[in-house]
Amino acid sequence: MVITYHKLECVKIQFGDTVLVFNPPSKKSSEQSVRFSGDVVLSSIKHEDFYGVDTIPPKNGSVFVIDGPGEYEVKGVFVKGFPSKSNYDKKDLLNTIYTVKLEDMNICFLGALNEKELSTAFLEDLEDINVLFVPIGGDGVLDPVEAYKLAVKLAPNVIIPVHYDGDKDKMLSTFLKEEGNTDIKPIDKFTIKKKEIEQMEGEIVVLASS
């Protein structure tokens, strides 16, 4: 599994010939649209900065779009979406938290979440998390301190922060201070296998945005 980060909350995950894209920006967003194709597009919130589901060309035939709570299965990927809240852009919006199982690994994508406490239904259904994507930008989503506390509570093997403006952003430095390690350097991509990730415990991975 190979993970890359493309600003704000746009994340690309490739495993084999299959590509998942989370929260790509739309053409109306101030963020530049991404320039790669995909098989499955997941949008956690219907806002122009995260709902560019029509900007991702199909990689293999057609794109399967997931944009709300429910259970989904496509191309050997199992997805569950759970409703939560966001106040992004000062609007009360539905945010969908996604759990994704692929290659025998569990991924949790919190989206534009700004709730410090997660629903009982979500927590009761949750399996051990291998990779957690957590927003840290504040201003309608979790701030760095809230994000770190929630991430630790969920006890993933790997924590990947998203929703910040580059590696010089004070939101990122604040998040890393909570961990007590401000020397973590951004990497271009994170490549991982199940047997490797099981040896990690709450490790923070910072991805350079492209």
Automatic annotation (TrEMBL):
Domain of life per record: Bacteria
Residue ranges of coiled coil: none
Membrane-traversing stretches: none
InterPro entries registered for this protein in UniProt: RibonucZ/Hydroxyglut_hydro
Pfam families per UniProt: Lactamase_B_3 (PF13483)
Protein name: Zn-dependent hydrolase
Species per Swiss-Prot/TrEMBL record: Candidatus Campbellbacteria bacterium CG22_combo_CG10-13_8_21_14_all_36_13
